[in-house]
Amino acid sequence: MSWLILSLAGLLEIVWALAMKQSQGFTRLMPTVVMLITMAGSFGLLAIAMRSLPLGTAYMVWTGIGAVGAFIVGVWFLDEAISPLRVIAALLIVAGIVTMKAAT
Fold first, then answer.
1. Which residue windows are transmembrane per the record (predicted)?
2. What's the pLDDT tens digit per position in 79-96?
3. Does residue 51 sit in helix, strand or coil?
């Protein structure tokens, strides 16, 4: 159950990162509100997952899901540049997540 909760926390991290981008430096109200709510949810779920998962593992997986997810959202929905090096970097993060999961 902790891994599911941690995965949901990571997905909420992607949402709040996108909302932060859409807030245009906190000048738009609704994206800022969405960011704050999903940020609180993400941190709350991370804290719950950390009850039974090691700190390093939980934090690394949470940030990894957020980083790779934000990269994918940026490329897919925001037309951000994609290059072989950026893809390799994202794949290395995924490899780290998988390795950390396997190590616990």
1. 33-50, 57-78, 84-103
2. 999 999 999 999 999 999
3. coil
User: With 0-12 CB in 10 A as exposed, 13-18 as middle and 19+ as buried, what is 102?
Assistant: exposed
Does residue 83 contact residue 31 with C-beta atoms inside 8 Å? no
Residue type, 7: S
Check: CB of residue 37 under 8 Å from CB of residue 86.
no
Q: Are 31 and 23 in contact (CB under 8 A)?
A: yes
Rg (CA), the chain: 14
User: Residue 78 and residue 74: Cα distance in Å, rounded?
Assistant: 5
pLDDT in tens, 11-20: 999 999 999 9
Instruction: Name the residue with tokens 């704050």.
Output: 36
Predicted model pTM: 0.90
- CA pair distance 28, 71, nearest whole angstrom: 22
